[in-house]
Amino acid sequence: MASPPPGAGPPRHRTPDNRYHGPPSYPVPPRWGFPGLVWRQPTVVPGTASNAVHPAQRVRLLARNTTAVLWTVGALALIASGGEFWRYVLLVQSRNSALSTSVVGASDALVITASLLTSSFGLIALVTTLWWLSVARMAAADAVGEEPARPPWQVAVAVLVPVVNLVMAGSVVAELEHTVLRRPATERPRPSVLVRWWWAAWVLNGLLLIVTLWFRFRDGIQAQADAVLLGGLLDLAAAAFAVLTSLVVRRMTELLAPIDDGRLRRLRVLKVTGAPEPVLRSRPVGAAR
Known about the structure:
Elements (H helix, E strand, L loop, with lengths): L54 H39 L7 H44 L7 H9 L4 H16 L12 H24 L4 H36 L33
Helix pairs in contact: 1-2, 1-6, 2-6, 3-4, 4-5, 5-6
């Protein structure tokens, strides 16, 4: 006679015991426990592997600084465009009448000062935006558990090389948005309306810069006047581009790190009402501590 070995049959259905048997008990006092520290952020606990700041936490701090610099650049570029348009109006008026020396000096001072400040803050905005872009790409790739779509050197070439960046910079931002939204890697990136407007403003600024430089090096009074008008349009387009860039940075950051630690309210237990009184345990006399 053949009999099945033990365990070969179907497992017996056991009803789980959901009764409460009281708190756990130990034959001896346990030697383990939590450290004698108050609760704190896991990234500031010394001596642990969590000392390194996560990219998702760094991207919000970088975005805050980047947007502040971009809005400053936008305001300065708007002032510079006003100075250029004022200079163009003075050029038109000089065709029929003489101009005041003080008015011309004030116009030149406004244009030069605004242009220098816009260029200086624009360089700072470029550095901070590239830094934010690098950290945001790492945070997005870490969130989806994949490698970035492009290596860092390709991103630098796509953003910094003239003429090439007119086409490739928008692709880099579209790929970042695609990863941030956690869309499939096999799907082709479809930029949103905001990214498309940003890309259009980027291309418009590049084309206006090329045309303005071309008119700057041309001879003739009319070419110089046209260069002043194009300079005002370029500053106006730069202001719009700075604002659009700040909006893109804020949107990507909110998708990567939706909770701002600075806006969270620290909750404290001040009073407990309606809770039963705790059971006090008496310690036997002579018991070992």
